[in-house]
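2024-03-11 09:14:02 DEBUG pipeline.ingest accepted 1 chain
2024-03-11 09:14:02 DEBUG pipeline.ingest length=368
2024-03-11 09:14:03 DEBUG pipeline.predict start
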Amino acid sequence: MQTLIRIRNLAEGTIYRSLVKRICFTQDAEQVHNFFIKMGAQLGSSDSMKTLTSAVFSFHHLALEQTLCNIRFKNPIGLSAGFDKNAELLKILPEIGFGFAEVGSITALPCTGNSGIRITRIPQQKSIWVNLGLNNRGAKEISQRLKNDSFDMPFGVSIAKTNCKETCEVEVGINDYLTSLNIFSEKNIGNYYTLNISCPNAYGGQPFHDPKLYEMLLKKVSKMKIKKPIFVKISPDIEKDKINKIIAISQKYGISGFICTNLTKKHEGKNGGLSGKAVEKGANELLEYLANKTRGKFILIGAGGIFSAEDAYKKIKLGASLVQLITGMIYQGPQLISEINQGLVHLLHEDGFTSISQAIGIETYNKK
């Protein structure tokens, strides 16, 4: 069976890269993205299409299962926030093979995002430049659609402050976060929540990377007494002195973990951020730094530059319990999720492990 799945994945990847990707990469990137969102939502609305999608893409192995924060994950591969901004794909993602997903980022008010060209592929860097600006339909509409539904995998809700001039005022920005958190937590939507304080393409920058403002935000969040895990998504460009303070503040207010990382702003353009291989080195360095500093006190989710099982395994060995991707799937094809999961089982076996949890942090924690 393993051999058949490997052959299946090889064939699907070849078809995607030689035909589908070539056609898609001649078209406007945002229009292609919107097309696949619509197609995925349609596939997820049909039981027969879900079954077919599962047969075409999925892979499962007990070695990849783990429970974190009382949430059961069938495998460690998740879809990053930024792809399914309006939570339209939750029915189809588990059939593609994802172990979890993060929807959004969602803001308190609907937002059309930034103007002009907002997504550009950079093939030579295996990267994508993104300047969408948190476009989404808003917490009220999205939560209303999700509140009475159930899903076959866990998912997180990524929450950011609305991309507008008004939320640049600190108290307004904090209340924007609180409004969205309240809407989703009151309706019991999502398995965890993420505070996205690191969007690189929103009005006013990343003010809550400032430890003083970050503590103001967490102080208000803690008073809400939300019972589900809360993660914080950080930038790969953050300075070490700031991250040290953010770690201490996060521990003080009971944050469950960090997502390492968002897009990088270290590029020639002034706006937006880069994904994929352009962010991998910085994301891995910050992941390793966090793992070394916190030693299991937080759950770490690695993101940025995952194009193979080896890329995912590297993050796991550095300290990530889970990983997330978008760009690798765009460049390699949707069968990449199955390829990574199957590859992880092989890599675990090579290292003498029977469970993914045994590999977490071995490159970082074993260093003297």
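2024-03-11 09:14:41 DEBUG pipeline.report Residues 166 and 172 are 7 Å apart (CA to CA).
2024-03-11 09:14:41 DEBUG pipeline.predict end
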